[in-house]
Specification:
By secondary structure, this protein is α/β, with parallel strands linked by helices. It has a domain of 132 residues: 3-Layer(aba) Sandwich (Peroxisomal Thiolase, Chain A, domain 1). It is globular and about 55 Å long. The N and C termini lie close together (11 Å). It holds the Pfam family Thiolase_C_1.
């Protein structure tokens, strides 16, 4: 990167299953809160990067619908649409533009507002699954429903067999997420859970239970990035982008054999490789000790355990023991998802934006009730989406 880039503002709306606000209203609220956080006006924003998934929100060319509400009318606009990774893809795009000198201040806006048939015709879950299935390979994948629940259940079953992970250990990790979410006023699911609650929840596809999976969430989140040339004019608490990596695992779900049917240990290939690249470039040899906090895109509780190992935070097949010890709690040696994570709030479009923004709040010391008690200085945030895509961001309180 030619110029150093920092996060100077973050805003999000209250997340819920069915927001009373329209998509445009949610987007406007998220943008306004980010601007207020950065203490700037829209006039000081040079470029807008819009992250969206049109088929989810039932619109085409949503940049036209949102122009007056996000503020990109007569401003440079880039629209990114990469499925579940879209918030991360949009953020990395904005960082590149600022670093390259195309603009000094870029605002990223992501909003989730789902549409579909009335619930008595088709529930939202099957509607979204049908939409996902429409994009899979015509010859190798049309015969089955390939989506989050089915694919992640295969991973969970393999991990349980290979590692000896118990249902109690997975339940403890889900309880941890619920406990953190209760401290976050923006989280979607904010009810207390016990291990018994999790273990008694309905089975989806063994060993995946209902409470292991993330919800379907509506809301909006925005991040503002600024170049080192103007940061001092905006904030005295910048969070610096130290490095970033974006990688795919495969073109099609059925090609992810290491992910779906591992022989020795479960992993997410793109996340593992992205971390290897990022760690090497930044002198990180022991990430569990050299990182202070992690915001991970975990679409289910099992994924949090598997991806801890993919990130080198735990030895293969040992993450569940580390999590069960309390090491990943807010007051643990390596807090993971102090915000409550994606298993508590899953806007899809907004999910990676929230991971990046929540990590920035932690490094600023502005996370409120879910603030990590010891002062974090460096952390990592991940994204996740179709074909095992990983947009990875390393943030630091210290200027690189």
């Amino acid at each position: 990167m030619k110029r150093r880039v920092a996060i100077v503002g973050f805003g999000q709306t209250e997340m819920s299953a069915h927001s009373p606000l329209t998509k445009a209203e949610l987007a406007n609220q998220g943008v306004r809160r980010a601007l207020d956080d950065a203490r700037i006006t829209l006039k000081q924003v040079d470029e807008i990067v819009l992250g969206d998934i049109d088929w989810v929100s039932g619109t085409a060319e949503s940049e036209m619908e949102l122009a007056d509400f996000v503020g990109h009318w007569r401003k440079p606009l880039v629209k990114i649409e990469t499925g579940g990774t879209v918030g991360g893809s949009a953020a990395l795009s904005a960082i590149h533009h600022v670093a390259a000198g195309a603009c000094d201040v870029a605002l990223v806006s992501t909003t989730a507002k789902f549409v579909g048939p009335p619930p008595d015709v088709m529930p939202r879950g099957p509607f979204l699954q049908a939409a996902i299935s429409s994009g899979v390979h015509a010859l190798t994948e049309k015969w089955c429903a390939i989506g989050a629940v089915g694919t992640l259940s295969l991973m969970a079953a393999a991990y349980a067999k290979l590692s000896g992970c118990t249902e109690e250990a997975v339940a403890l990790t889900r309880v941890k997420a619920a406990r953190n979410a209760m401290l976050n006023p923006y989280a979607h699911l904010r009810e207390p859970l016990t291990v018994e609650d999790v273990m008694k929840s309905p089975m989806l596809t063994a060993p995946m239970r209902h409470l292991h999976m993330c919800p379907i969430t509506e809301g909006s989140a925005s991040i503002i990035f600024a170049s080192e040339d103007v940061v001092d004019q905006i904030t005295d608490k910048p969070v610096w982008v130290q490095d970033m990596v974006s990688l795919h695992s495969a073109q099609h779900w059925s090609a992810l054999q290491d992910f779906i049917a591992p022989k020795e240990h479960c992993t997410l290939p793109s996340l593992q490789k992205a971390c290897e690249i990022l760690y090497k470039r930044n002198g990180i040899t022991n990430p569990a000790k050299q990182l202070d906090v992690v915001e991970m895109y975990e679409p289910c509780t099992w994924a949090e355990l598997v991806w801890m190992e993919a990130m080198g935070l735990a030895e293969p097949n040992q993450a569940w023991k580390m999590a069960a010890s309390g090491a990943t709690a807010i007051d643990g040696v390596l807090p993971i998802n102090p915000s409550g994570g994606v298993t508590s709030t899953n806007g899809g479009v907004t999910s990676t934006t929230q991971r990046y923004g929540e990590l920035a709040l932690q490094l600023r010391g502005d996370a409120g009730a879910h603030q990590v008690p010891r002062e974090p200085r460096r952390g990592i945030a991940t994204g996740f989406g179709g074909t095992g895509w990983t947009p990875l961001l390393l943030l630091s309180k210290d200027k690189p």
